[in-house]
Design brief:
It is a single chain. The chain is of the alpha+beta class. The chain folds into 3 domains: about 110 residues, Acyl-CoA dehydrogenase/oxidase, N-terminal domain (Butyryl-Coa Dehydrogenase, subunit A, domain 1, Orthogonal Bundle); about 100 residues, Beta Barrel (Butyryl-CoA Dehydrogenase, subunit A, domain 2), CATH 2.40.110.10; about 160 residues, Butyryl-CoA Dehydrogenase, subunit A, domain 3, CATH 1.20.140. Helices cover about 50% and strands about 15% of the residues. The strands form 2 sheets. Strands 1, 2, 3, 4, 5, 6 and 7 form a 7-stranded mixed sheet that branches. A two-stranded antiparallel sheet has the order 8-9. A hairpin with a 6-residue loop joins strand 4 and strand 5. Helix 4 packs antiparallel against helix 5 and helix 5 runs antiparallel to helix 8. The radius of gyration is 21 Å and the shape is globular. The two termini are about 40 Å apart. Bound molecules: flavin-adenine dinucleotide. Flavin-adenine dinucleotide binds next to strand 1, strand 3 and helix 13. Belongs to the acyl-CoA dehydrogenase family. Its cofactor is FAD. Keywords: FAD, Flavoprotein, Oxidoreductase. Pfam families: Acyl-CoA_dh_1 (PF00441), Acyl-CoA_dh_M (PF02770), Acyl-CoA_dh_N (PF02771).
């Protein structure tokens, strides 16, 4: 099947299953697992997992296009469907062969979800201060602590948990934990303001035991940073998808609303705003695709795992996420004014799109955090400046 056929399938899925059902997806009802099952029926679930583990092995460049289409329909659905890329890429690069076989193959075969648990209340973005601990007890690893936010954990097959060594507080480990491991408790689901089709939980571990070889190889914080490269680019792609949708709903509205005896789309101010949106959307798309190509080029190297350990965060992944998050937010803000008072009601989808797109500048590093990271890594060392 070609890329354009796959994109056609995704567009059909969005048109058939999502558009027009925004109210249900925005209701914070139970996570729409039946909807995800219907996505799985397209054969595209976990589309990036390498072929050797039974996946399609699609690259990030194509993933940008897929995610933009999914987010055009619903950013929460898109987030739920692409976020496992964070977990699987950490396992794919830094898990033992046995671990990959145990977790990645069945994930693809059963068309399931997985989750990553890093964030904690007290530590915030200073992840080096996390207090979830891991200790070795004979053949097992034992986890204790609470993770503030974890998307999809309740219905995931397994998780990767970032924990601090109980014996050596300067050591961090990424541990693979089956969802049904005893001692793992889902405390609550958060009532989020946007992306309400996704489900994010607070999760606790109390004497939670897993086999000793469930740890990934390497510093857990560094592995998380590497895993975030792909998902940050896809958060940017999600902002792109929402921005494209906003442009289109503005156009639809402008055709039905009349001003001075003509449709609003004939008004120069309205048209100029749409022209501005198109310029912004075009640059967002180019930035997402450039970041994805850079990611794919590294991922294709036989020594990718080693190169990524050295590199850590990819500059263009950070800048794509920041740029697209900020630009989509500007577009959403401008667009919400363009509907007048009706745009401030739940009768129009623009309010949902505005709430949904807010996540792009917050999740996986708020902009203050990413600005600081870009400054430290890519401004201070002069050789890394563009
Ligand atoms: C819907 C949702 C889903 C999520 N899913 C997951 C998930 O699956 N797994 C997971 O691990 N986490 C998840 N998260 C957590 C998310 O990634 C974090 O909330 C996000 O990165 C922001 O971090 P924080 O909440 O720790 O806030 P902080 O980053 O601590 O921010 C709090 C304040 O401190 C400021 N601040 C922090 N650091 C700096 C700095 N260096 N310079 C200047 N100011 C700074 C911020 O600007 C802000 O004002 C999710 C969150 C949400 C809302």
């Amino acid at each position: 099947m070609s890329e354009s056929e796959r994109l056609g399938i995704v567009r059909d899925f969005v048109a058939r299953e999502i558009l027009g059902r925004e109210g249900i997806l925005d209701s914070l009802a139970d996570a729409p697992l039946a909807l995800y099952e219907r996505f799985a029926e397209t054969g595209l679930m976990n589309w990036w997992v390498p072929k050797e583990h039974g996946g399609l092995g699609l690259g990030l460049e194509e993933s940008v296009r897929i995610v933009s289409e999914l987010a055009y329909g619903d950013a929460g659905v898109a987030f739920t469907l692409f976020l496992p890329v964070l977990t699987t890429s950490m396992i794919g690069w830094y898990g033992s062969e046995e671990l990959k076989e145990r977790f990645l193959g069945p994930l693809v075969a059963r068309r399931g979800f997985c989750a990553t648990l890093g964030s904690e209340h007290e530590a915030g973005s200073e992840l080096a201060r996390i207090s979830t601990t891991v200790r070795r007890d004979g053949d097992t690893l034992v986890l204790d602590g609470t993770k503030a936010f974890s998307t999809s954990t309740d219905f995931a097959r397994f998780l990767v948990v970032i924990a601090r060594s109980a014996d050596d507080p300067a050591r961090y480990t990424a541990v693979t934990v089956p969802r049904d491991a005893p001692g793992l408790r889902v405390d609550k689901r958060w009532d989020v303001i946007g992306m309400r089709a996704s489900a994010t939980y607070q999760v606790s571990f109390s004497d939670c035991r897993v086999p000793g070889d469930n740890a990934l190889n390497g510093n857990g914080l560094r592995l998380l940073e590497i895993g975030l490269n792909a998902s940050r680019i896809l958060i940017a792609a999600s902002a792109l998808g929402v921005a494209r949708r906003i442009r289109d709903v503005c156009m639809e509205y402008g055709k039905t609303k009349s001003l001075k005896g003509a449709p609003l789309v004939k008004d120069g101010v309205f048209a100029g705003r749409l022209g501005q949106f198109e310029m912004q959307i075009d640059v967002m798309a180019n930035q997402c695709l450039a970041a994805a190509r850079a990611y794919d080029a590294t991922a294709a190297r036989p020594d990718a795992a080693r190169v990524l350990l050295r590199q850590g965060a990819q500059k263009s992944a950070l800048t794509a996420k920041m740029f697209c998050g900020q630009t989509a937010w500007q577009i959403a803000s401008t667009a919400s004014e363009m509907f007048g008072g009706i745009g401030y009601t739940h009768d129009m989808v623009i309010g949902k799109l505005l709430r949904d797109v807010r996540h792009a500048s917050i999740i996986e590093g708020g902009d203050d955090v990413l600005r600081d990271l870009v400054y430290q890594r890519f401004v201070v060392p002069t050789a890394k400046r563009t």
